[in-house]
Structure formats: structure tokens, C-alpha cells
Write a structure and sequence with these properties.
- 44% of the residues lie in helices and 26% in strands.
- By secondary structure, it is of the alpha/beta class.
- It has one domain (4-209): Vaccinia Virus protein VP39 (Rossmann fold).
- Strands 3-2-1-4-5-7-6 form a seven-stranded mixed β-sheet, sandwiched between helices.
- Helix 2 (18-38) runs antiparallel to helix 6 (105-118).
- The longest helix is centred in the first third of the chain and has 21 residues, at 18-38.
- The protein starts with a helix and ends with a strand.
């Protein structure tokens, strides 16, 4: 079981309602229960769930430029970052509409279960990103899903021309960026990850093929 300090630190950094805390607690309990059967996150990282997954996901919620519209999370897996952001938005940005894309049927079932149990609105699409009909997202997010050049292909398909993409990237970020710039042009902002010393939160817009 994760030390109390992980949850306490998360809550000390965020001004959230008691209802939001209850939803996050319910999510954490479901994740720990389901993880033994379908391996939603690594066994090591679930011991530090609130920091490694909840705090890591929540940091992008603070960086979005809009508080309404369609948020699409690609390759949601255990719900990171999209489901955490959907829970935070339930009270603080209720005009955001969430779609979680996860092709693994068991993981998609888990995501639907958390939405139902927490009373958070959202849809889960258990289809492949590259064949899914364009979703016209105002906000597009992904975490530990694919190299940046692949994520840009997904963004070209699913992000509105004036939308923003938020990608959590790790230590290989600079190499991925160099490779992507060979074929793509985009406006970008970079923020150091608050949970990973080697990580970067990348915000992209005006994405075009060269």
C-alpha cells in the first residue's frame, strides 16, 4: 500500500473539493483492485500511485488554455492522464467533454467502470487511434504512448486546426523532437515535469506537415 504522504502531497498542492477527493480515492481503490488482474500499471509504480500517476497526470490540467470543449485522451490505459483530468474537471471545468481512447477491451471496461463509480461524465472508445473517425478535439493528450512523430500523425487526424496537444515525454524527448521536426512544423511550449526530473510536458499547436 502506498505511503500516506503521496496522497497528502497531492492534496496539499491542489485546491479541490471533498467530492473530488472522494472520486480520486474511489479511482485509486479501483485501480489497486483491478491491477492484480489486468496490469494497468506496473507493480512498482502502484506503490507510489498518487505521485507517479495522479500528480504526473494532473500537471497538464494546469497548463490547458481553455476550460470548455472536447478533450480527447489517446491510449488512456489505466486512465492517465485523461481520467485524472476528467475527475479534476468535474467541478472546476464542467464544460469540458472527455473522450478516452483505449483499444484494449479490458482496460476500456476498467475506464468505463471508474467513470460510472465516480459519477464523472465521459465516453470510452475501444478502437484503434489510427482507424478511428476524426474526433475534432480541442485538447489532445497522451502519456507514454508513442514517439512524437507518431503522436503528430494522430494529432493531424484528431485535433482541430486551432486545438492544442499536450504530451508527457521522458528522457528521450530531445531526440524525438529532432526526428519530428524533419517532417513537421508546429508551435511549441516546453515545461519541466513536476514529477520526473528527466521529463517534459510538451504543448503543441498549429501542427502541419513540412
Amino acid at each position: 500500500m502506498e505511503p500516506t504522504s503521496g496522497r497528502a502531497r497531492f492534496l496539499s498542492e491542489r485546491d479541490v473539493s471533498r467530492e473530488t477527493i472522494a472520486r480520486l480515492d474511489a479511482y485509486a481503490a479501483l485501480l489497486q483492485k483491478w491491477n492484480t488482474a489486468i496490469n494497468l500499471v506496473s507493480k512498482a509504480s502502484i506503490e507510489d500511485l498518487w505521485n507517479r500517476h495522479f500528480r504526473d497526470s494532473a500537471q497538464i490540467f494546469d497548463l490547458i488554455k481553455v476550460r470548455s470543449g472536447h478533450w480527447v485522451d489517446l491510449g488512456s490505459g489505466g486512465g492517465f492522464p485523461g481520467l485524472v483530468c476528467a475527475i479534476l474537471a468535474r467541478d472546476s471545468a464542467p464544460e469540458l467533454r472527455f473522450t478516452l481512447v483505449e483499444s484494449d477491451l479490458r482496460k476500456a471496461t476498467f475506464l468505463r467502470t471508474v467513470l460510472r463509480e465516480t459519477g464523472v461524465s465521459g465516453q470510452v472508445l475501444s478502437e484503434r487511434i489510427e482507424t478511428l473517425a476524426p474526433l475534432c478535439a480541442d485538447i489532445l493528450s497522451a502519456r507514454a504512448l508513442a514517439p512524437l512523430k507518431t503522436l503528430l500523425e494522430y494529432a493531424e487526424r484528431h485535433l482541430k486546426p486551432n486545438g492544442q496537444a499536450l504530451f508527457l515525454k521522458g528522457a528521450s524527448f530531445q531526440k524525438e523532437l529532432e526526428e519530428a521536426l524533419e517532417s513537421w512544423t508546429f508551435r511549441r511550449e516546453e515545461y519541466a515535469s513536476s514529477t520526473d526530473g528527466a521529463g517534459t510536458v510538451l504543448i503543441l499547436g498549429e501542427i502541419r506537415r513540412v
